[in-house]
Amino acid sequence: MTTARYRRIVLKLSGEALSGEEGYGIEPKIIQSIANQVKEVAELGVETAIVVGGGNIWRGKVGSEMGMDRATADYMGMLATIMNSLALQDGLENIGIPTRVQTSIEMRQVAEPYIRRKAIRHLEKKRVVIFAAGTGNPFFSTDTTAALRAAEIEAEVILMAKNNVDGVYTDDPKINKDAEKYENLSYMEMLNEGLGVMDSTASTLCMDNDIPLVVFSIMEEGNIKRVVQGEVIGTTIRGK
């Protein structure tokens, strides 16, 4: 298959996906692997936006549980996503993929501020756009950021790349060997069964805007391209 099923996508990466087996920090080999996979997709002509989390550096929820003010802890998490985004931008540009980082919190010395029309123009010019700093507001996850940006730029799908699981299961497959993987789900089924794929705010945004979600493993080289080309891997969530 040499053609793409989607014209414009949002790739959602967890911060932990950038840390490899260490579980903390940024692993250069992982950055390079992801960059190479994104390049494969870009070469198909797919307009690609990326939202990356910051859990490999800091989690606002953990800070809050330690007694820190929740808003302050969340703003620190947003800064962590910017660090990850800049690392990913560097990895992409090192292999010839023009990339722009847009942040919801202005820091013009290192990245552009998020402007919807400018982001769409970058995508139309086949530049990869990385959306950093979440929504710019505390109490919202990067899953919600992915859903919001996907709706704003009219992306056709959100690809949720995981580093520790290859889809959505009835139970934790690491604990329960009898857990079964779903091939297809609706957002309502996901919410009603409490599967924890993404938070309810993000799920509702996707459902209301009819944006499908594909959950798959990023640890196997070439998986992003396979999903973009329409190969059935992982779990697809859509509709009501």
From TrEMBL:
UniProt region (Involved in allosteric activation by GTP), positions on chain: 20-25
InterPro entries per record: AceGlu_kinase-like_sf, Asp/Glu/Uridylate_kinase, Uridylate_kinase, Uridylate_kinase_bac
Stretches assigned to coiled coil: none
The entry's keywords: Allosteric enzyme, ATP-binding, Cytoplasm, Kinase, Nucleotide-binding, Pyrimidine biosynthesis, Transferase
Notes on activation and inhibition: Allosterically activated by GTP. Inhibited by UTP.
Subcellular location(s) per record: Cytoplasm
Full protein name: Uridylate kinase
Binding site for UMP: G54, D74, T135, G136, N137, P138, F139, F140, S141, T142
